[in-house]
Amino acid sequence: MESLQKKTTEKLQGAIIFSSVWDGIGSASLPTLIGKFRAQNIDSLSIAILPSKIQPSDAHFNAYATLQMCQNTDGATVLLLGRDQLESYDGVDRKGAQIKGNVVVNYLLDMFLSKNSLVQEIAELSRTFDIKMFSAIAVTAASYRVYGSLENMLNAALLKPLLSFNLSSASLLYVLLRIPVSLR
Asked: Which of 54, 84, 112, 162 is 20 to 30 A from 22 (CA-CA)?
């Protein structure tokens, strides 16, 4: 933490932690890093990639143990993404280039980093509503002219979630839009 703080010219306000939680190092380090950041009063958003259905049972055990530890860690805010869903994702970026598989994570990170207060907002919502685990749905480079409305875009996003979940059981929705100024 000291080394990280020495490298920044300003006080570190928030951190995004990325980890695959099926291996020993990734699963063990995630709750530890969350706790370290929390001890320094630094909000964090963790992105945890869950194992594929075809991975061995010890990978699923590691992921389950990590998520349980995160659930019991003060200040944990974890975005869950499924490896199977990431690998089968197919979309386009803002320039019309195809994004497939794990490249969607880079797309999401780019979107997250473009909003300076994202980590703080998600962390505050997490504390306020006592929700530590989140998931994501994405519509990449959707044309308003093609879809006709934001509602249609969001309905299309439900067809390709980045983790299988029942939307009707969701207790909090956070929508992050990157839209042209003309549509604002």
From this structure: 112
Q: Which residues pair with 161 in a beta bridge?
A: 137
> pTM of whole model > 0.90?
no
Percent of the chain topping pLDDT 90? 35
Please identify which residue in the block is written with the tokens 């780019």: 110
Burial of 5 (0-12, 13-18, 19+ CB in 10 A): exposed
Helix intervals (H) in the chain: 2-7, 24-39, 57-71, 83-88, 103-114, 118-129, 144-147, 150-157
CA atoms lying within 13 Å on the CB side of residue 24: 0
181 to each of 46, 154, 177, how far by Cα in Å? Answer: 30, 19, 11
11-53 pLDDT, tens digit each: 677 889 999 999 888 888 999 999 999 998 889 999 999 999 9
Q: Looking at 30-44, 84-98, 140-154, which range is the least confident one?
A: 140-154
For residue 143, how many other CB atoms are within 10 A of its CB?
10
Residue for token digits 């010890």? Answer: 58
Q: Which residue carries 């042209």 as its tokens?
A: 180
| Sign of the alpha-carbon dihedral angle for 28, 127, 8, 112 | positive
**What's phi and psi for 119, nearest 5 deg?**
-60, -45
Tokens coding 98: 């195809």
